[in-house]
Amino acid sequence: MRTVVNIILVALLASSLSAVQAQASAAAPQRVEDKKCGEFSQAGRYDCFSKLHAKSTVSLKKAEAAALQKIAQWFENDRYKNIARTTMRSAGVAFVRYREAKCAFADSLRGGAIGNAHEISRLACLGAANTERALELKRYTDHFPPD
After folding, report:
1. Taking Cα atoms as reference points, which of 73, 130, 75, 67 lies closest to residue 100?
2. Where's the Lysozyme inhibitor LprI-like N-terminal domain (predicted)?
């Protein structure tokens, strides 16, 4: 009898967790880029995502430059500053490879989509990844002295 009660409790717990996860994913906000560009036709979406991708690329370059500048101002031994700069550049190269692979995978999930759908998907992914990386660099170097 005890085993049956335990099985029922586990089943109830699993079903309630599934319901909570379903509600959380349904309530999760769309990416900002999707909200900004989602109202356009396919051609308009392509133009919108192209602009957002270009803007995110500039933002990422600025974030990288700001991070390097903060490292240069870091009140730390030059040896550690050099290590930080080198590893940041290495991480940047790895990020580019990761971003390309991630966005290629996301695009592959579009299947036989027609028109600009594949390119729109790729641009949206690249823009989002750039934005995430820029925020990550800022978060890592926020504790450094101001510019």
Report:
1. 130
2. 41-137
Tokens found for residue 100: 């390309």
Query: pLDDT digits over 57-108, tens only?
Result: 999 999 999 999 999 988 888 999 999 999 999 999 999 999 999 999 998 8
Q: What is the 3-state secondary structure (H, E, C) of the chain?
A: CHHHHHHHHHHHHHHHHHHHHHHHHHHCCCCHHHHHHCCCCHHHHHHHHHHHHHHHHHHHHHHHHHHHHHHHHCCCCHHHHHHHHHHHHHHHHHHHHHHHHHHHHHHHCCCCCCCCHHHHHHHHHHHHHHHHHHHHHHHHHCCCCCC
Q: What pTM, to 2 d.p., does this model score?
A: 0.71
